[in-house]
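**User:**
If convenient, please work through this fold.
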Amino acid sequence: MSKFRKDGGKDTPEISTASLPDIVFMLLFFFMVSTTMRDVELNVSYVQPQAKELTKLEKKDLVSNIHVGVPLRKYQKTFGTESRIQLNDKFATVDDIQAFIASEREARKEELRNKLTTSLKVDRYTKMGIIVDIKQELRKASALKLNYSALQGADEN
């Protein structure tokens, strides 16, 4: 019969860390691709109005935002304290809206251009005159799909 001996001197092998950099770079690449950055810096402040019946927009990549509100404190010396229009990252006038809509359509694929929705994000204390002017310019630009952003309001019953 053979005699079996147990060697007490053997340790378990160490875990190989050779593939660790590959895993780290794969995770880094995943988060870089899947993270979306904020594309517009707000230059106006606004308090959204409240509404009772809201529907959520399905495809947010087909939405162009028009912000209307009081300029931030750092811009009030230049632009005053009345409500102003912000298109993308800069202040604009009502006359700039048609060019803005045209550039937004050009940035989309041909088959998606007629599905573009314009979202108005307006301060609740903004006077209706500027909103009517914006709507008239949107009609001239044939941007007839319009959305008003609001917060869910409480029922008053």
The chain has four helices and eight strands. Residues 44-152 form a domain with the Nucleotidyltransferase; domain 5 fold (CATH 3.30.420.270). The first strand starts at residue 44 and ends at 45.
